[in-house]
Every structure is written in structure tokens, then in C-alpha cells.
Amino acid sequence: MEGPKVETLIPRVKSILSVILSLMGDRSVYVRQTANWCFGRICSCVPQGVAGVDFMQQLRKSLFEQSSIAHYACWSISSLATFYGQNKINSPLLRPEIVPDIVKTLLERAEKQDADARVVSACFEAINQLISNGPKDSEAFKKMVNQLLPGWIDRIVDLSRPASSSDHHQNMLAATLSTLNVSLNVLGPHCLDQKSTNRLMDSLIGLGATNQVVIEEALLCISYVCYVVGDNFFNYFRTPQVQALLVKAVDIDNHKNPNLCQVGAAVIGDCLLACTNSIKKSISTDQRLQKFTDEIVRKMLTLILHMDFPLEHKPHLLGTLTDVGIAFGPFWERYTNVAINNTLAELPPDPDTEDVKAMTEIRETLVDMCRATMLAMSEKGALPAFGNFLGNFLKLLQAITKDPFRTEREVKIFLDFIHEMIEDFRSKPNTKSMLAQLKVSTMHDFLTMAISNPNLKPFAQQVFQLFINDFFLCFVVGTVVYFSKKFLIKDKPVKGGKKACGHLFNINLFPNHYTFCVVHDHFLFFLFLFEQPIFMSTLLPKKPQDLTNFYFFAKNINKIILT
């Protein structure tokens, strides 16, 4: 059911707000609790209703009430900060001269020994919202966040010392790491100096935590450090301590936590991308880095191919393998056979209904991995080796063509890659013959399906045209002429040859005149090349059975209307 519109509620909220604020300080704890919940609800649903009202004094009092009331006070601050930030409203709540005082008050409440996990989390969530929703173009606000940064690092250094393993201590550590991550994200690159980075990384490496939330936040902190220090993180990334921490994060046998594996994989990917330049320079000689990568690739593939590992986490693992390919460049070829063919061949072609979203993400990530592999091989001058993966890629293409749950975005991603692949194959003399491996029936079905989508039709037609231009020239028309010459000159009929020629050059089969002209022009051009010995010896197919694919294509091309 829909309630009244916000515009209707604003004047009503304003009319009762003074009463609610008064009841938030009532003598009865039950009244105070209900009134604070009511104010939190207003801040969440009708934040416009509290504009121009001085509520901070009462919220400060509520913060130091019992946990259930303090939680609602934090909720109010978080909701208002989010609303003002998202709508770019210049509120006193987000002014750089006021935020530090609110942060100090929230920290004092979180540090009280009676603060349970819910209150600690709520206090730091309010701090995070205040920091992340500040005016993005305000240098004064960024300066304020930057001034708070050393304090967060000091707290993490202190909390990471094994002085206490109490729940409150662990909650404070996890929450402080979260706030540091938010601050680094707001400040961006170059906000950490060398000394601060060293102190922080030493604390993260020596953490020794067993609390899963603390471990996840510490791993995410490594990602944000990568983000702000960039390629300089390589000096930390190649240390045994950091590598051991990352390997441990993706070792499912160590912690039995699939979500932690996902976080660890994402962090490894962030590290690789941040350090790409240094990795490419050193990977061929850095045996420690090679050994680390061998272990990471092995663990990623083990989890991806593990039938009991949750499917929804696998796109992130595949994404990490893609990041390895991007960061390692030509050196990625070392892993391609085991990585690409295994992941393309072993993933379930018919996922359960509840796994459809995950399977879509997996297929999209596989395209990224294929693209990274193709680029790596091209850099190394070994692009023909990509032909080893085309068979399994076409199986993936077949799966998406038949999948009734496929998305338009997914089809577009595959179209983009096919377009890039054909362009790359035809741009190099030693890869043009690889066009013949793109089976006509599979490509025909996929492109027909893509063209049937009105939103994708123009681009799908463009890809199909490119496919005709090169595939017909290098393989299809060549096959017909080759076998037709045998049939006409040597008087040795080849089964299917005459029938295929009839399908190709029967004008009745081409309701679209443009398509017929394209095919006809290619045939005339091929007749010119027919007398060139080099062309005949390198491009023409040698097996009579190769005519099958062309016959299928020629027979069915009239189904695709290029208008």
C-alpha cells in the first residue's frame, strides 16, 4: 500500500516535531525510546520536515542514553547526512567546521564500555555518512577529512596490538577500518605519505585477527591503500607478508567462508591493477611474484570449478583472473590454456532459475577474460594461439543463444567482443585463416538472435556485415570456387558443391538486393585473386567436408534481413 506523498507529510511533520523532540527527553525510558524511534523514522522518510529545526542538542543527549535509544540517534544522523549529500543541500550538519565535533561525540559514545555491537556499528555508520556525503567540490571539507586521517591510522595502530580480544575491541577495530576506508575513498590518490602508509601496512600485516568482519575490513583497507598510492604499492605487494595474507584470504580450507574468498579475490585484483606497470616490468624475472601468481591462479580455478562453491561468488573470482591477464600482459599466456579452456568448458550451461543472475555475470566476465587473453597474445605476437580457445568460446556463444533468460546487456557484450575479434583476426596476415574457425552455424544463430532485438539490430547488422566481408572472402567463397573448379574443369563432381553454388547465386534466395550484391561482388573479386598462386596456396581449404558449413550459411542467409 502507498502512503501519502512527501509533500503532504512535510507540514504535518513540522507541526508535531517540537512535541517529538520534547518527548525524546521524557522521564519515562519507554517514551524516550519511542520518541527517538519516531524522530529517526522522520529523518529516514521525510527528512525535509526537519529543515530549519535545531535538533542536535537533543540528539547529543540521546546518544548517551541506553543502547536502544543511542542507536536511533545515530540512525537519525545517518539518514539526514545521506539525504543532504545526495540532494546537494547545504546543511549545517555537513559543514567542515561542525562535522569534527559531531564525529568526536559519536566516537565518545562508541568507546563507552556499555556500547554493544549495534551501537558501535551505528556510531561509525553515522561518521561514515557524514564523511562520504560532504560536498564533493569543497576543498575545505576535503581538508577537514584529511586532518582526521592521522587519527584513524593512530587508532588502527593502537587497536591492532593484541591487547584485548574482547568483542567490543574487535567491533571498534572493524568499525575504525571501515571509516578509514571511507576517508581514503573520499580523499583519493596521493593522500597518504610514505610514513603513514608504512605504519598502516605494518598494522594490517601483523593484525592476526580471527574476527571475520575485521579481516574483511582489513583486506578492503589494502584495496584503498592501492587506490591512493597507485603503482608505489608494488613494494608492499611483492613482500612475503602481504602475499601470504592475500593467499590466506582465498584459501577456503582455511576459513570456510565463501564471502571472504570473494573479498580476497577482489583485493588481489585491485592490487594487480594498481601495480600493472611494475608487474609487467618485473614478472619475467621475479620468481617470487611468479610463484605467488601460480598459487593465486590455482586457487581461483579450484574455487571456480568447485561444484559446491556458491555460483554468485564466481564472477568475482573470474574477474581476478582477468585482472591477472591485464596486469601480466604477454606473460599471461603462461596460464591461458588451463585458465581459459577450463573456465569456458566446465561452467554449467543450464543454471537453476535462482542462479540466472550469477550465470549472466559469469558469462560477461568470461568475455572480459577472453579479451584480456587476446590482447596479451597480440602483445606477444602469438595471436594465432587464441584459436585454441575458439571452440569453447563458441560453445559459450551457443549457450547464450539458447538461454531464454539472457539479457540485452549480455548480448551486447558478446557482440562487442566478436566485433573486436574479427577486426583483430583480419588485421594480421597470420590470423586471417582463424576466421574459418568461427563456425557458420553458431555465428549465424547468435547474430540472427541479436538482429531480432530492435535495440541491438543496427550494431548486430554491422557485426554481421563485417562477418560476411571477411568470412566469405577468406573461407566461404574460396571453398565454393575451389570445389566448383574441380567440378567444372576436372569433371569430378563434389557432393554438395553444385547445390551450394546454386544456393549462393540464386537471386531468388536473396530477398534483400544489398546482401546479394555483397556476395556477388566478393565472388567477382575472388575470381581475380584465383590466378594468384600465393593466395591459392595459403587461403583455400583443402578438405571437401569444409563445404558443409558454407552450404548451411548460404541456405539460411535469406533469414537475415539487412535493412
UniProtKB/TrEMBL annotation:
Where would you find this protein in the cell? Cytoplasm
- Which keywords accompany this UniProt record? Acetylation, Cytoplasm, Membrane, Protein transport, Repeat, Transmembrane, Transmembrane helix, Transport
Q: Give TM regions.
A: 463-483
Query: Entry's Pfam families?
Result: HEAT, TPR_IMB1
* A cellular component term, taken from the record's GO annotations: cytoplasm
The record places domain Importin subunit beta-1/Transportin-1-like TPR repeats at 56-440
Name of this protein: Importin subunit beta
Q: State the organism of origin.
A: Reticulomyxa filosa
